Amino acid sequence: ELSSPDSLTDHEEITGAPQICNYCHGNGWFLGCNDRGEGVEKQCPLCLGTGAVQAKITIQWKKAECKK
Fold first, then answer.
1. Looking at the whole model, is its pTM more than 0.70?
2. Ordered DSSP codes for the chain
3. Which pLDDT tens digit goes with each residue over 10-68?
């Protein structure tokens, strides 16, 4: 739920709780092949091998466009 800031600021950032990366299903890697056709683990491009991601939300506050 959003609430306007109680200090003189025009933006704020909220960081969400870590969540399992749905792209790699929390593994942190995918099974791929190297140049010789051998199976190798390739790092997930989204979570960079951690198996988890975290949302960073930026809110910019501006004046309301109210009709009088």
1. no
2. -----SSS-SEEEEEPPPEE-TTTTTSSEEEEE-TTS-EEEEE-TTTTTSSEE--EEEEE--------
3. 899 999 999 999 999 999 999 989 999 899 999 999 999 999 999 999 999 998 888 76
